[in-house]
Amino acid sequence: MINSQLDTEQTDMEEQRTATESQSLSSCPECDGQVTHDEEHGDTTCEDCGLVLDDTPIDRGPEWRAFYHDEQEEKSRVGAPTTQLMHDKGLSTTISWQNKDAYGQSVSPRKRKQLQRMRTWDERFRTKDSHERNLKQALGEISRMASALGVPGPVRETAGAIYRRAVDENLLPGRSIEGMSTASLYAAARQYGTPRSLSEFATVSRVKEIRIQRAYRYMSRELDLQIEPADPLEYVPQFASALEISDEATRQARDLLRTAKSEGVHSGKSPDGLAASAIYAATHLTNEQLTQETVGNAAHVSKVTIRTRYKELLEVYTADSEVV
């Protein structure tokens, strides 16, 4: 939004400059006739005698074209792009931590103290009230957890937007910033089809899993987040990569889950538990023989869950094979 406004202002200034240049040639040097500037063709001509005074004007506008607002935002080079992961969306400026002048030379101790005081006041003015301090702390937590989990950039931006919605809807009173920020990141990962288990988020969060669960349910209900139930098949690639199993075992795990879904066995069950059990079963069918403890540690699922779901998957798969 700011970028488009700056581009518009720059275009207006260029048009005013062009108009001023045209006005300087108010009369034709040949016949003293009226001189006009054709914006479409870029010609400066006399209306009376038709003399062309200038046919090569300088175009001071951008060298690119944009037909949509999103395209204009993407191509614009006026300032850094805005981001949802900063409380001011990245529109403010910061004083560099380096104690050097414009020539790269170190400043004197007196100037160094002055710069430090300026940095302190600059940091205070960037967060003027409790609302901005809340956002700064929460968005910092989202960035920290996303980096620890290796979450892609679009998911982080979506998490920041979800948390901002929660703040605007006044959902924070009575709830911890850490719990709501973790729930925002979890919801964003679900929306993008790259789900992670709550246990994974709990390992990098500063709150317990039960509090993340409650915050997510509350936020999803109040903000009416359209999030579909997680598909167990979406967990297979990350579990398979963490356990370094073969492609054959990965395909077998997918087949087990597809069979379970077709029979409705997945309904009401934890998707990450089903995916972990399918991988455990697949490794035994392909003679890779991973233990329940190994799979459980990689998937953050208990051995009891793996044993229970493993039996259910094999029963359905065996029954389906006999029918075929």
Protein described:
With 324 residues, this protein is mainly α. It has helices at 2-24, 69-75, 109-126, 130-149, 153-168, 177-191, 198-204, 209-223, 236-243, 247-262, 271-285, 292-299, 303-323; strands at 35-38, 43-46, 52-54. A three-stranded antiparallel sheet has the order 1-2-3, covered by helices on one side. The model is unreliable at 1-7 and 18-24 (pLDDT under 50). One of its GO terms (biological process) is transcription preinitiation complex assembly. Residues 35-44 have a biased composition (Basic and acidic residues). Sequence repeats lie at residues 140-223, 234-315.
Question: How would you describe this structure in keywords?
Answer:
58% helix; three-stranded antiparallel beta sheet; disordered N terminus
Report a brief summary of the structure.
With 324 residues, the protein is mainly α. It has helices at 2-24, 69-75, 109-126, 130-149, 153-168, 177-191, 198-204, 209-223, 236-243, 247-262, 271-285, 292-299, 303-323; strands at 35-38, 43-46, 52-54. A hairpin with a 5-residue loop joins strand 2 (43-46) and strand 3.
Radius of gyration: 31 Å
| Overall average residue pLDDT | 82
Strand order of the largest sheet: 1-2-3
**Which class do the helix and strand fractions yield?**
mainly alpha
As residue ranges, the low-confidence spans are 1-7, 18-24
The separation of the N and C termini measures: 59 Å
Number of strands: 3
